[in-house]
Amino acid sequence: MKHDLHDVCTQIRRDTVRSIYRAGSGHPGSSLSAVEIMATLYFTDVFTCFPDRPHAPERDRFVLSKGHAAPAYYSILAHKGYFSLALLDTLRTVGSALQGHPNLEKLPCLDCAVGSLGQGLSIANGIALALKIRHEMPQVFCLIGDGEQQEGQIWEAAAFASQHHLDNVCLIVDCNGLQLVDSLVSIKNMEPMDAKWESFGWHVLRVDGHDTDALYEAYSAAKTYEGKPTVILAHTVKGKGVSYMENQAQWHGAAPDEAQYRLAMDELTTEVP
After folding, report:
1. Which residues form the Transketolase N-terminal domain (predicted)?
2. What is the residue range of 114's domain?
3. Could you tell me which of 30, 60, 206, 214 has the fewest CB atoms within 10 Å of its CB?
4. Other CB atoms closer than 10 Å to residue 226's CB: what's the count?
5. Residue 85: CB partners within 8 Å, gap ≥ 6?
6. Farthest-apart Cα atoms in the chain, separation
7. Nearest Cα residue to 205 out of 158, 240, 154, 171
8. What's residue 273's pLDDT?
């Protein structure tokens, strides 16, 4: 099944760069790497959601554990109709619903608030276990960064999900290879990731994290896999779509100046598949 989300993803990238530029702060690299991962969920039929009824019990759940990728997530939610597109220009401003990390009190359409890295999978597990106890069918998707795997809580949560056979959990790891100041390999290498997750009792898939068809197939497989939670290791490019940001650790958490902003917007206008 062909899922051509190129135009959608380009617009999300434009929104992301613009909102971070206007805010003067944010995390463009980590947001841009995760665009297809989140867009494939929200803009295909693999993820059940109801923007007009954001807390419908039959909805699937999404936990953005790498909360600093909020600018891209906010754009997706706005384009899905959860709130006005005009709010995107208020990112990180005082009183805005769009804080630097997703805030449930400010934005009640979310499934949870996140901030400190490493906590999202535990939250996803709790939601998934509650759904199983109630014999309800929704899937719980959780997105973490590859550097986030360096948190011990991730592996405690991994063991818990396996022990309790939480096959309604699908974890996506944004494997962009970079973190705040350097490469993952230089700071704390997490490979071989397949073997680590398999040893914790997980069903493991590897995909190109910018291939929306591959992501769709992986999500579909996760929703039907029984007996084990699924982890999708999605290989991505940090700063994807903006040439001077791609694979550059310094763009983990920096806002572009005016010239850099104009260049990024020019590139995202003329980007080709």
Report:
1. 9-262
2. 6-270
3. 206
4. 8
5. 78, 79
6. 54
7. 171
8. 44
Residue 158 lies in a domain: yes
Please check whether residue 195 is in contact with residue 204, taking contact to mean a CB–CB distance below 8 angstroms.
Answer: no
- What the block records as the tokens of 78 is 């706005």
In this structure, is residue 152 part of a structural domain?
A: yes
29 located within any domain: yes
CB contact set of 88 (below 8 Å; sequence gap of 6+): 15, 18, 19, 74, 75, 78, 98
| C-alpha span between 67 and 118 (Å, rounded) | 10
Q: Environment class of residue 140 by beta-carbon count within 10 Å: exposed (0-12), middle (13-18) or buried (19+)?
A: buried
pLDDT along the chain (273 residues), means of 10: 86 98 98 98 98 97 97 98 97 96 95 92 98 97 98 98 98 96 94 97 98 98 97 98 97 97 92 47
Q: Which residues 6+ apart lie within 8 Å of 4 measured at CB? A: 212
pTM over 0.85: yes
pLDDT the model gives residue 23: 98
**What is the DSSP annotation of 208-238?**
ETT-HHHHHHHHHHHHH--SS-EEEEEE--T
For the CA atoms of 187, 120, 124, 157, what is the dihedral angle to 10 degrees?
50
Question: What are the counts of helices (DSSP H) followed by strands (DSSP E) for the chain?
Answer: 10, 5
pLDDT of residue 182: 93
Q: How many domains are contained in the chain?
A: 1
pLDDT of 55 reads: 96
Q: Encoding tokens for residue 102?
A: 């997703």
Residue 1 inside a domain? The answer is no
- Report the CATH number that the domain containing residue 198 is assigned in CATH: 3.40.50.970
